[in-house]
Amino acid sequence: MTTVGIIGAGHIGSALAKGFAKNGYDVVIANSRGPETLADLVAEVGDKARAATAQDAAEAGDIVVVTVPLKAIDAVPAAPLAGKTVLDTNNYYFERDGHIAALDEKKTTTSQMLQEHLPESTVVKAFNHIPAADILTDGAPAGSENRRALATSSDSDEAVALVTRIYDEFGFDTVNVGPLSESWRVERDQPAYVVRQNADELAQNLARAAR
């Protein structure tokens, strides 16, 4: 059985832990405060989940989700993530993260920053433009009319295929933005950000994005 490591236990991380466990994955989840603070979440997720340190979650995961504030990505352990696919849910909020010149000047993207921190991993954007509450409530079977779509972005076709499969398991269609350098199209303040949209609408919103 595939194990998903989740580094970050906020709203998104908690929702993903529940969703992955429901879809049959084993889940190892970590936060910055220690495994003992996750007892209630683990009890809620059920037998397929356990709490761990970030290092342990990174080591245990066949695939790993990084869902920490952007300002904290330097604390994500790089060595145990080497060779693994890493799902990046992050967005840039200067109010929380402080101003980052390279992002303010549109010279990079949040996912490229994580890729730079994890040079031996394969980073793929996922679940960054959907409210946490919708992750477990707005999915629908494949082929459903007006099925919600989510975007992904990676420099790896294999990583895009992986996220496409995961999205489908959660009940969403997929639109591929392209390489990480284009992932800004689905970030904060862009037309595709945190609105409900089907695949055609998402593609249109991605095309409308302006930097």
UniProtKB/TrEMBL annotation:
Does the keyword section mention Oxidoreductase?
Answer: yes
Q: Where is the Pyrroline-5-carboxylate reductase catalytic N-terminal domain?
A: 3-92
Q: Which InterPro entries does the record match to this protein?
A: NAD(P)-bd_dom_sf, P5C_Rdtase_cat_N, STEAP_metalloreductase
Keywords of the record: Oxidoreductase
Instruction: Name any one GO molecular function.
Output: oxidoreductase activity
SUPFAM superfamilies in the record: NAD(P)-binding Rossmann-fold domains
The protein's matches in Pfam families, at most eight in alphabetical order, are given as: F420_oxidored
What is this protein identified as?
NADP oxidoreductase
